[in-house]
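note to self: dont lose this again. the chain is below, predicted strucutre after it. 116 aa total, dont forget to put it in the shared folder this time
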Amino acid sequence: MRIWIESFRSALQHPIRIFVITCVVVGGLMLLDGTLYRIWALNRDSEQLRERIMQLQTRVGEHQRQLKAVQSPAFIEKMARDRLDLVREGDLIFIFSGSEVPLPSSGGSTSKPASR
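---
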């Protein structure tokens, strides 16, 4: 037992040895309880979240540009013409035979769409 105490006292006289032993013990304890793995996993998750934030910021920018474009009168008119088949007053409309568009009724007669 005395040999251990004397060797411990002699080790205390060398601060570099104490530092190395302390680092080994602390590193070993961190490995054993999983702290280093948790730190590594958190850093990895942090990088993935940063990439996801960048992607979402890009999408937000695209949506903001689309929102500005949608609010313009020219875009609204184009969508009304394309999707809703609306026309301006004075526009010339062509109705082709065989189309399924019912003709407006005049008087009491009803018109049926043309058959195929």
